[in-house]
Amino acid sequence: MFKTLNLKKLILSFLIPFGVAFLSEILTKNAMEEYANLASPPLSPPGVVFPIVWAVLYFLMSLSLYGIANSTAPQPKKSLCYLIFGLQLFFNFAWTILFFVFGLHTFSAVWLTILIALIILNILAFYRISKASAYMLIPYLLWCIFALYLNIGIAILN
């Protein structure tokens, strides 16, 4: 997947997703306390699981983005990948705000459904350039599908 290491692209590929994660964390600092107070559906993990899972997912997203940035694919193909990646990252960030800051649980479920569609598009776009980069986004897709189940459950129970 990585023919030569491009340190600048690698750092930028990590700064973008983790920068968004950091900003999200700042804006929703009491999110896990609020989550603990919500009635949750069966299979809901304890709040301590979320930061661990998201750290792994953001790491995989960063490596995946680097695989595209460091590829020899034509710039128009890469630009499309960056656009879709940016859109899904924005929807990811906004979901956290909608759900935790504004408490819009039902609307958040709809938003999360759009995010899942964008992740699927992201995987398909990345696949055209780097299968490995596409495969690294599959855990993110699966986690967001699970999050949709949790989101719908919380919307119904609260």
Provide the descriptors you would attach to this structure in a database record.
158 residues; transmembrane; Ferritin; mainly alpha; TspO/MBR-related_sf; 7 helices
Structural write-up:
The protein has 158 residues and is an all-alpha fold. Helix content is 78%, strand content 0%. The protein has one domain (7-157): TspO/MBR protein (Ferritin, Up-down Bundle), CATH 1.20.1260.100. It has helices at 7-27, 31-36, 49-69, 75-101, 105-127, 131-135, 138-157. Helix 1 runs antiparallel to helix 3. The protein is elongated, with a radius of gyration of 16 Å. The model has no long low-confidence stretch (mean pLDDT 95). It is found in: Membrane. This is TspO and MBR.
Tell me which CATH architecture applies here.
Answer: Up-down Bundle
CATH superfamily: TspO/MBR protein
Question: What is the C-alpha radius of gyration, as a whole number of Å?
Answer: 16 Å
- Terminal Cα span: 45 Å
Number of helices: 7
Largest sheet: number of strands, sense, barrel closure: none
Helix content: over 70%
Provide the structure class. Answer: mainly alpha
CATH topology, by name, is Ferritin
What would CATH call the class?
Answer: Mainly Alpha
InterPro entries: TspO/MBR-related_sf, TspO_MBR
Membrane topology: Multi-pass membrane protein
Family: Belongs to the TspO/BZRP family.
Subcellular location: Membrane
